[in-house]
């Protein structure tokens, strides 16, 4: 059974050629690929954060089995190691490209859009072939696919033909000739491999992207993915290009810290990307057509009884880290004053963090991930709602108040996904 050489074998080859990538690239590997292609594919697979979704908790990397929670039920990710029976070892390059660009499996079956082929369709064929070449170097793992937890008729894949007609537009990325090369590189990454819109674009009732609110923020498994538009209150309007790069590279900046699903993205993906690519993504996010402005609500007055109750809870439980003026400690405890997540319309992340706690991403350049303790044992729904109403309307913030019923409802839906890598 022939497949590409393992990365260990490649490393040995480098040693034998004096460490020269160019020298090894002239040597045909077992499946006809070369080291340069494989190295490129490894970088692109990292940029696409393939390992996060295709690795089950405690499982072998890329062997699948992780449950992706959707509003319609759980969908389990497949094995993408080169095992020929349960993975993609028997797939051709054309079959792999078809799955990525068109959402069609090896045997012609339609793939659920929990797999972000609506974004991967923009990735160039050569880049997808390189990713396949890299995946073929992994150790094969036998891992049978788990049955998805979708009710009838959603478990019938032919229904996806209608979904694709409504919400899927195939086609590789086309650069904008009026924009810079850097802008277009950032657009290619954000709109394609990085599939930022999979989380940061709100969905309609059928799970399709709301095309008029691209990157305007969304909710995934009771985590709020914030607005990546230019809104000063709820988006990236107050962030510089350098702020975005620092956040993606280190998992934090002077304004915020990555936790939950975003901590995984930083840990497995963006911290390993080149500074040039991170800057390109930041340039694109800052220069792209802005999302529609979100009118700021009238803040809840400080004299309101709920605000007074929330202030008391804040002073007793939060001010030691986030300080009395809500500005936190830069690159350690996030700034609550002016925070887009704090002022977002959706409050899932805020409830989750107070109830379950969380830990910020730990990266090579910022190896200590600050933690937020859980307060579910201490604060009831009324106290949590008062606290969140307070931080959403103090220090110049403005956002709708949070009710005890909202907290109770979200608390009841939470799964144990607060832990970070």
UniProtKB/TrEMBL annotation:
Keywords on record: Cell membrane, Heme, Iron, Membrane, Metal-binding, Repeat, Signal
Cofactor note: Binds 3 heme c groups covalently per subunit.
Subcellular location(s) per record: Cell membrane
Organism domain of life: Bacteria
Coiled coil segments of this chain: none
Keyword Metal-binding assigned: yes
Residues reported to bind heme c 1: 50, 53-54
Annotated residues for binding of heme c 3: 318, 321-322
MF-aspect GO terms: electron transfer activity; heme binding; iron ion binding; oxidoreductase activity, acting on CH-OH group of donors
Cofactor(s), by name: heme c
PANTHER family in UniProt: ALCOHOL DEHYDROGENASE CYTOCHROME C SUBUNIT (PTHR35008:SF8), BLL4482 PROTEIN-RELATED (PTHR35008)
Protein name per its UniProtKB record: Alcohol dehydrogenase
Organism: Azorhizobium oxalatiphilum
């Amino acid at each position: 059974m022939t497949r590409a050489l393992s990365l260990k074998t490649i490393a040995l080859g480098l040693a034998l050629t004096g460490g020269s990538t160019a020298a090894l690239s002239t040597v045909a590997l077992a499946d006809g690929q070369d080291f340069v292609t494989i190295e490129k594919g490894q970088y692109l697979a990292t940029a696409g954060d393939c390992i996060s979704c295709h690795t089950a908790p405690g499982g072998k990397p890329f062997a699948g089995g992780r449950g992706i929670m959707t509003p319609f039920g759980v969908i389990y990710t497949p094995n993408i190691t080169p095992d020929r029976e349960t993975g993609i070892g028997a797939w051709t390059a054309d079959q792999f490209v078809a799955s990525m660009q068109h959402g069609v499996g090896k045997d012609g079956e339609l793939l659920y859009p929990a797999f972000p082929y609506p974004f991967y369709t923009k990735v160039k064929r050569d880049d997808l072939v390189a990713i396949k070449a890299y995946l073929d170097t992994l150790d094969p793992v036998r891992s049978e696919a788990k049955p998805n937890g979708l009710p009838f008729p959603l478990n019938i894949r032919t229904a996806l033909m209608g979904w694709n007609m409504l919400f899927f537009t195939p086609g590789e990325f086309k650069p904008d000739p009026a924009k810079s090369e850097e802008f277009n590189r950032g657009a290619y990454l954000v709109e394609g491999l990085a599939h930022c819109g999979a989380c940061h674009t709100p969905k309609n009732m059928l799970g399709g992207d709301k095309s008029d609110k691209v990157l305007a923020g969304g909710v995934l498994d009771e985590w709020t993915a914030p607005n990546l538009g230019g809104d000063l209150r709820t988006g990236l309007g107050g962030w510089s290009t350098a702020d975005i790069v620092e956040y993606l590279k280190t998992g934090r900046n002077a304004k915020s810290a990555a936790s939950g699903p975003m901590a995984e993205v930083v840990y497995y993906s963006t911290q390993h990307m080149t500074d040039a690519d991170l800057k390109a993504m930041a340039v694109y996010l800052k220069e792209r057509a802005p999302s529609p402005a979100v009118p700021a609500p009238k803040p809840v007055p400080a004299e309101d009884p709920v605000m007074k109750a929330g202030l008391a809870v804040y002073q007793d439980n939060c001010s030691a880290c986030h300080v009395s003026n809500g500005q936190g400690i830069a690159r350690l405890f996030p700034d609550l004053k002016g925070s887009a997540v704090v002022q977002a319309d959706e409050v899932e992340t805020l409830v989750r963090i107070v109830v379950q706690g969380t830990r910020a991403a730990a990266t090579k350049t910022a190896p200590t991930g600050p933690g937020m303790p859980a307060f579910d044992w201490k604060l009831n729904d009324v106290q949590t709602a008062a606290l969140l109403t307070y931080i959403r309307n103090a220090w110049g913030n403005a956002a709708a108040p949070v009710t005890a019923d909202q907290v109770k409802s979200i608390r009841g839906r939470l799964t144990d996904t607060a832990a970070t890598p």
